[in-house]
Amino acid sequence: MAETSKFDTLASAYARSRPTYPAEIFDALRELSGRELAGARVADVGAGTGISSRQLHERGAEVTAIELSEPMLRELIAKSPGVGAVRGSANALPLRGASVDFVTFAQAWHWVNPDLAVPEVLRVLKPGGALACFWNMPAVGAPWRLGYNDRIRALIGGDPDYGNDSTALDEDPRIELGSRWSHLPVAVFETSWSRRVPLEHRITNVMSRSYVSDVEPARMREFLDAERAILLGHFPDGMVVEEYTTWLGVVRRP
Q: In the predicted model, is pLDDT for residue 6 greater than 70?
């Protein structure tokens, strides 16, 4: 049986609601890696519907998007002209050795097994190339988000089950590199920003999360109705201000 992804049923909601990444992240990636994005070959792994792949391509990179979920990959191909795309995972990258300048994981490194993925990343990177992992992290202290993570835990029966501990509901992100490669230095950059979206856009964002994919539909409807009421209490005009800190970690190939 072909390997499947928890995102197979979430592709449409993901494509409609997930935010892009701030320009400062790509400027910082160039500075921390010492390599230009323009003209670089980039493997964007766990590319989802192509949000980061398109942004990298817009900056002149030659991007190959790698995604396990076929529905996500279809969304990516339909909306990402100029971006190459292939089905695959971080554990066995479908690339030649020393063939790319960057391997990027946008909102994705927490799904990998570092002991399998790190050797693959190092294999495909050119000498002096870089691994870059970045996440849009919601501002948990924003008044409208207070208690949200606890409500999620109550809904799904605990914390989300990711592949490693690189990120969690209440923790700052970090790059788990596995036991063999834990000595590699990680250069970090962070920036804060916000966007203003319609309330239903925010609700769709909640529905795009992997950890709600198995929730029984009636319970999910009840949860979303309660979230709508909370959001309207903070944003009576129906426009939600989502606040984020975007975290970037860069590891250069030894």
A: no
